[in-house]
Design goal:
Alpha-Beta Plaits, 553 residues, mainly alpha
Length: 553
């Protein structure tokens, strides 16, 4: 609360009181005749000026209402209780000004017409303001539900087991992969802005849920998780369009309210101008009556003019100039510019500057928090994408990634007329290795074998992936059968040279069995056929005693 001696209202009252006192002293010094004329002038001026001031107050109230609506649109204030209280306060403020103006009386026939113009815009505006408050409350409710969807999706994501877990069956691994697709589609729809994008994401989600429904699951945990997905995820595709629709409706209502506020402001300002013109005309009439007394009042008028000029200069320097600076700073911030906000002094203007500074700081913090949340969401999406194509144990590509690369390279080779080779590799007697040395040593063995195989690839187009269990697969674009066979023998030699002890193997160390297949893709063949040839060659290598390479015919 501002001190009384620093209040702008107090200072203005003192200045006006001093000026008016001087004016009264000058008038009283003229004599009885001029005093009688002054009484008539005073009564007329009081009536006319009262209506003019009441109309000015009504204009000010209408401008405040328009500014409040503009602030709601620009500042994005979404407090339902504060919005309703503000609307009620504005309504009471405006009604009191109207009642005072009607008590003072109109300005004849023109005043009645202007009153009708005010009534024409008053009711639609306050109805629109009430509707805006209702829509803002609806938007808060929808946003709260929006945040609850985020929490529910995060909890569901935490309940998913790892895709690469060896304890999962192939159907369960497919379940986890499709569940990730459904969750990613649903999470994306929570930030979607276009109906077409939302429809595309919903189609992806429905396809993933159809695949989930056809999987023969037996694990109770996965059955419960599938039921939760079917119950929770569809809510996002209903709540997001509703939120977007409500936001557009709120913006449209705010724009309509602003237009009505401008109409109301224009009507009140026209009324004020009419009363002001009437008052000025009355003043002019009385000035002609006292024109003969101007000579005696000249000296006093000069004194009064000097005091008035001093008051104007003081008001301009201490009030108007500071208000202009504060207004300029506000407009600069609305345009995205960062400029200092004037807060000098200890009165209402400095209080306004301090309040606006708090608002700017709060908006900056909110923008930073929003940016941080978006960055965190992007990181989570990138991590989900990486997990969906990477084998967690070996760091190699997983089978899903291999299948995607196989289709791409098959189409490229078919288009360019190149060869395409596949090498299937299996760690010999790996079950016996696990039984003898334990699963931790088995995992370490697979990791070392995967690293050795990856080191043998020199080209960026070659792909090595974990196919499942102790099986690995290599995709070699542009290699024929002979080149692929040489690479397979190299792989066998490199892995055997690792010297990983294995008492259950004939060589005493971990070895590989490898199957090689190569062909030139065409429209009559299928990529799975190439993998099948390499797999058959792998079984032939195992039948031949392991620790060898076989090439498909």
């Amino acid at each position: 609360m501002q001190s009384i001696r620093h209040s702008i209202g107090t200072r203005l009252s003192l200045i006006i009181g001093l000026t008016f006192s001087l004016y009264l002293a000058v008038v009283l010094a003229v004599g009885y005749v001029i005093y009688q004329q002054y009484r008539g002038f005073s009564e007329l001026a009081s009536s006319q000026f009262g209506r003019a001031l009441a109309a000015a107050e009504l204009t000010r109230d209408a401008e405040i209402i328009a500014a409040e609506v503009f602030e709601i649109m620009v500042g994005n204030r979404r407090s339902n209780s504060a919005g309703n209280q503000r609307a009620e306060n504005l309504t009471r403020l405006y009604q009191r000004a109207r009642e005072r103006l009607e008590q003072l009386g109109g300005a004849g026939e023109i005043g009645g017409v202007l009153h009708e113009e005010l009534n024409r815009w008053q009711e639609p505006f306050f109805s629109s303001l009430d509707l805006l408050g209702t829509q803002l409350a609806r938007e808060e409710t929808l946003k709260a539900a929006h945040l609850r969807h985020f929490d529910a999706f995060f909890l569901l994501l935490q309940q998913l087991p790892a895709v690469e877990s060896e304890s999962l069956t192939p159907d369960e691994q497919r379940f986890v992969s499709q569940a990730l697709v459904a969750l990613v589609s649903t999470a994306s729809v929570l930030n979607a802005e276009r109906p077409g994008h939302i429809a595309q994401l919903e189609d992806n989600y429905r396809q993933a849920m159809k695949r989930l429904a056809t999987l023969p699951l037996t694990a109770p945990q996965l059955l419960r998780l599938r039921a939760k997905l079917e119950m929770v995820l569809p809510e996002a595709f209903h709540s997001r369009p509703a939120l977007l629709k409500n936001a557009r409706a709120t913006l449209a209502t705010a724009r309509r309210t602003r237009v009505l506020a401008q109409k109301l402001t224009s009507a009140t300002y026209s009324y004020h101008l009419q009363l002001k013109a009437t008052a000025q005309k009355a003043i002019a009439d009385h000035q002609r009556l006292i024109s003969r007394s101007l000579l005696g009042l000249l000296l006093a008028s000069l004194v009064l003019a000097t005091v008035t000029l001093g008051a104007v200069v003081h008001i301009r320097r201490s009030i108007v100039q500071r208000l202009n600076q504060l207004s300029g700073a506000m407009h600069s911030h609305l345009q995205g510019l960062s400029v200092p906000i004037p807060q000098e002094g200890n009165d209402e203007i400095s209080g306004m500057g301090a309040s606006f500074s708090v608002f700017v700081e709060a908006r900056c913090r909110a923008e930073q928090q929003l940016e941080e949340a978006n960055r965190h969401l992007q990181q989570m999406n990138a991590e989900l994408e990486r997990l969906s194509v990477t084998d967690a144990l070996t760091g190699l590509a997983n089978r899903r990634c291999f299948d995607q690369q196989l289709v791409q390279e098959w189409q490229r080779a078919e288009r360019d007329g190149n060869m395409l080779a596949v090498i299937m590799a299996d760690v010999d007697c790996f079950k016996a290795y696990n039984d003898t040395y334990g699963h931790q040593q088995g995992d370490e063995c697979l990791h070392r074998v995967a690293r050795a195989m990856s080191a043998c690839l020199q080209r960026s187009s070659d792909v090595v992936a974990r196919y499942g269990g102790e099986e690995f697969v290599m995709l070699l674009p542009g290699l024929d059968g002979r080149q692929a066979e040489r690479l397979a023998w190299k792989l066998l030699t490199v892995v055997r040279a690792l010297g990983i002890e294995h008492d259950g193997a004939e060589a005493g160390v971990v070895t590989l069995s490898l199957g090689v297949a190569s062909l030139s893709p065409n429209s009559s063949l299928h990529p799975d056929g190439l993998v099948g040839l390499a797999d058959s060659a792998l079984y032939a290598a195992k039948a031949a005693g392991r620790n060898t390479v076989q090439v498909a015919d």
